[in-house]
Amino acid sequence: MIRIAGLGLAGLMLAACSGQAETGGTAQAIGAVGVAGTATTPGVPAATVAFLPAGGDQLSPKDPIVVKASGGTLQAVAVTNPQTGNGVKGELSPDKTTWTSKDNLRYGATYQVVATAVNQAGAATEQRGEVHTIKPSGVATPALFQPASGDFGVGLIIGLKFDRDIADKATVEKSFKVTSSPAQDGGWYWVNKREVHYRPKDYWKAGSTVKLETTTFGMPIGGGLYGGQDVSASYKVHDSWIAKADGKTHQIKAFHNGQLVKTAPTSMGKTADTPPRGPTPTFNGTHVVLGKEAHKIMDSCTYGVCEGDPGYYSAPENWNVRISADGEYLHENLKTVGVQGSDNVSNGCLNMNTENAKWFFDNFNAGDVVEVTNSGGPQLAINNGHGDWAISWSAWQAGSALRG
């Protein structure tokens, strides 16, 4: 809401303009304000000041505050939030008749506006007012699934996670914008009520740039919620690195930009019911590299088998390339060298010897792809790291709120 106050101001104007559908109401005077500067020259009207938008018990924090002068020019404009002491930045038009705020406002805040205009004779008029922004029942703020920028492989998954359930997914999804160069067909998929991912139909093209922008801030998004602060991201897709691991042949092959550059024997997760833990097959499907650590202590307690339990282990492992959230890695394991290339005996990881594990560690990075087939395990889930590529394109499209 904007309230204004003035005293002895000739032709005082408060202009109205259309805002969001939920705004309404009229401005109210809240007291007297003195007039600074020289006396009014006979025959020269005093300058008047209007605050726009004028209507509304509550204003969207995304909409700008606009101060306009008539019969003169603006000399000074100050907009502050007395609750925080912060000022709001703005920009004056070339003819000095209009000032427009450039910062997003806060929800549920009161802003004090003080504007001074001078008429053609140099007489000054000061105008004061208040802006009240909407106070929603809740605010849902998105966080990036990945860092805001970086270099990734062709399996890059873009994602957002809100801190509240989203009731109107379609409205929210419409507010997202993903652009890529070169252009590639892609779409959003809602993992649950809070999390949504984006990927193209096929792997990203090597050398692509990919940008994400959200515009949910200030929007009603259902259930009384409004969108929180927007986020943006920019990514660079590096050369294509794709590994194909076959649990039947016990071989892992690496392709650089489509060319086979490495073949190595491996041992995947065991499918036999071997005590004390039973089968621990590697997940089938397309995995994406999440990160890597040169040296790491692998501890079975991370999946519930802790010290004192049958099958507990805690062992140092080298050249670890992580490919799932629940602890699948490509890494060195000297204890299984004798069966690498012939049998699957691991706890789910892809074991290799030192030379081969180091080669994959040196060449595979975040966003690169590891396709696992014939492992004997279930398909990798979308919430187990970046299992998005294991979902067919038709099923992915059906996961969009705009296709329901």
UniProtKB/TrEMBL annotation:
Q: Which Gene3D superfamilies match?
A: 2.60.40.3710, 2.60.40.3780, L,D-transpeptidase catalytic domain-like
* UniProtKB keywords: Acyltransferase, Cell shape, Cell wall biogenesis/degradation, Peptidoglycan synthesis, Signal, Transferase
Which first-to-last residue range defines the signal peptide?
1-21
Pfam families, per the entry? Big_10, YkuD
Q: Which PROSITE patterns match?
A: LD_TPASE (PS52029), PROKAR_LIPOPROTEIN (PS51257)
Per the record, the pathway is:
Cell wall biogenesis; peptidoglycan biosynthesis
Q: Where is this region: Disordered?
A: 265-284
InterPro entries, per the entry? Big_10 (IPR041280), LD-transpeptidase (IPR050979), LD_TPept_cat_dom (IPR005490), Transpep_catalytic_dom (IPR038063)
Active site, renumbered: 331 (proton donor/acceptor), 349 (nucleophile)
Which segments constitute the L,D-TPase catalytic domain?
A: 241-373
Question: What is this protein's name?
Answer: L,D-TPase catalytic domain-containing protein
